[in-house]
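step: validate -> pass
step: tokenize input -> pass
step: predict -> running
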Amino acid sequence: MMDAFEQLGLPRRLDLSEEELRSAFREAGKRFHPDAGGSEAEFSKLQESFTLLSSPSRRLKHWLVLQGVPGDERGSISPELMDLFTQVGSIVQPADELIRQREAALSVLGKAMLEGRTQQTRESLERMQSVLDASIAEKSAAFPQVESGAVDGWQLTRDLAFLEKWQAQLRERYGKLW
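step: predict -> pass
step: emit ->
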């Protein structure tokens, strides 16, 4: 099994900043990039490692597997995330309806009449994105407790995976509203 931490020359720890990851990628890229004497395959593995470690949920899952911690990535999410799930749904559903209406609007006037709702929906998506960002940061702050065995890493993996999935859904809708 590939060790993404080793591939990037990083210590095998969960608490990595975005800057640490980028810096490690740049340094490793100097060795593995095809223009620097590396191969396409080596550089591709490096990019895969960077992508994996850039996601808190995938980084945690990878770390748990490398450490041999038994568990299952499937299962329930924390109860507090159920409230977020409801909030995300209450924003995504109207956004989807508005996207359909915008796509069906055939005239410039028809599209212009939807602009007020479009701006409100964008703002709602941005606010929810901020809530999810904060929740991911809060969950990621527990990484030291996972490393010490005080927190169930697999539960945290599930929670983070759902949060990241919801983030992607919000970004997708936001992009369609431009």
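step: describe -> Residues 79-176 form one domain.
step: cleanup -> pass
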